[in-house]
Design a protein that fits this description.
globular, alpha/beta
């Protein structure tokens, strides 16, 4: 649990509609809904004072409450998960920091969530924190526009996120890695409240990456390097792959 007047709230945005995978949060994996796997992982965290599932669908709400989660209904008209997050946290006035934990990562490492929370507490100058894991410059993910890359300052602050290869290696540089961005975010409450009042920014619209709105508005974003390469679930095929991983780790 946090201390010193800090109140860390973890929120799992879980919407029903998905062009590739409608009803994804309730898709069964190894006998449990996808969202329950993520919730159970988050329950292992030591830094969260509160854990909430924020949804736009009564079916998800009822299932979440049935397995013991604190779930809240939010508007079905939010353009992004961050907007859903901001609505949910309005009902939690004690929250000083909010973690946006993707509801489709059933193998997320609880230690990474705690590390992000601690980074925000340790550095009051941060607006946000997120994570990335190193990949080789020859990895096919480097050229994959569905894989977001990030580059940072020498002190670990985000410089840019892109779907393009980043950086472009015109010259080989020993020790310089490519970093795949993980879609988990921590925010201070004041920054989150400001963020959702800003219109979509030009680079955000060009790359379809919400975090660029934060950078374009001058935010300080810490990028934690992690070995957590847990896969997300975007399609039924990926759900089957995760089910195999879960069955492997269970034995």
């Amino acid at each position: 649990m946090s201390s010193g007047g800090n109140h860390i709230t973890g929120i799992l945005p879980a919407r029903w509609g998905s062009s590739r995978f409608p009803g994804k949060p309730l898709h069964p994996i190894a006998g449990k809904p996808l969202i329950q796997h993520v919730w159970e992982r988050c329950r292992q965290c030591g830094k969260l004072d509160e854990l909430v599932i924020a949804t736009d669908d009564d079916r998800i709400l009822k299932v979440a409450e049935a397995f013991g989660a604190h779930a809240v209904m939010t508007s079905p008209h939010h353009p992004t998960g961050t907007d859903r997050l901001a609505e949910a946290v309005r009902a939690i006035p004690a929250s000083t920091h909010i973690l946006n934990i993707q509801g489709d990562e059933p193998l997320i490492d609880p230690a990474l969530i705690d590390e992000l929370a601690q980074a925000m507490i340790d550095d009051p100058g941060l607006d946000m924190a997120t994570a990335a894991n190193p990949i080789g410059p020859d990895d096919p993910a480097v050229a994959d526009p569905n894989v977001v890359k990030v580059v940072t300052t020498l002190t670990g602050r985000a410089l840019y996120f892109s779907r393009s290869p980043l950086p472009y290696f015109r010259n080989a540089v020993e020790g310089l890695a490519v970093y795949r961005h993980k879609g988990i975010y921590a925010y201070t409450r004041p920054f989150l409240e400001r963020f959702v009042t800003w219109p979509p920014s030009p680079l955000e619209q060009a790359e379809s990456l919400e975090q660029l709105r934060a950078l374009e508005n001058g935010a300080s974003i810490r990028v934690l390097v992690t070995d957590d390469t847990s896969p997300g679930v975007d399609t039924p095929e990926q759900a089957r792959e995760v089910e195999l991983l879960l069955s492997t780790t269970a034995h």
